[in-house]
Amino acid sequence: MARNIIQKIWDEHVVVSKEGFPDVFAIDLHLIHEVTSPQAFEMLREKGLKFHASDRAVATVDHNVSTAVNRKIATDAGSQKQIMTLRKNCEEFGVKLIDMDSGRQGIVHVIGPELGLTQPGITVVCGDSHTSTHGAFGALAFGIGTTEVGHVMATGCLLQEKPKTMKVNFIGKIGECVTAKDLILKLISQIGVAGARGHVIEYTGEVVRKMSMDERMTICNMSIECGARAGLIAPDEVTFEYLKGRECAPKGEKWAQALQYWSSLVSDVDAEYDNVVEVNVDEMAPMVTWGFNPGQGIEVSEVIPENADVQALDYVRLEAGQKIEGVPVNYVFIGSCTNARLSDLREAARIFKGRKVADGVIVYVVPGSESVREAAIKEGLDKVFTDAGADFRNPGCSMCLAMNEDKVPEGKRCASTSNRNFVGRQGKGAITHLMSPIMAAAAAVTGKITDVRKLI
Question: Which of 179, 290, 300, 358 has its CA 20 to 30 A from that of 116?
Answer without folding.
Answer: 179
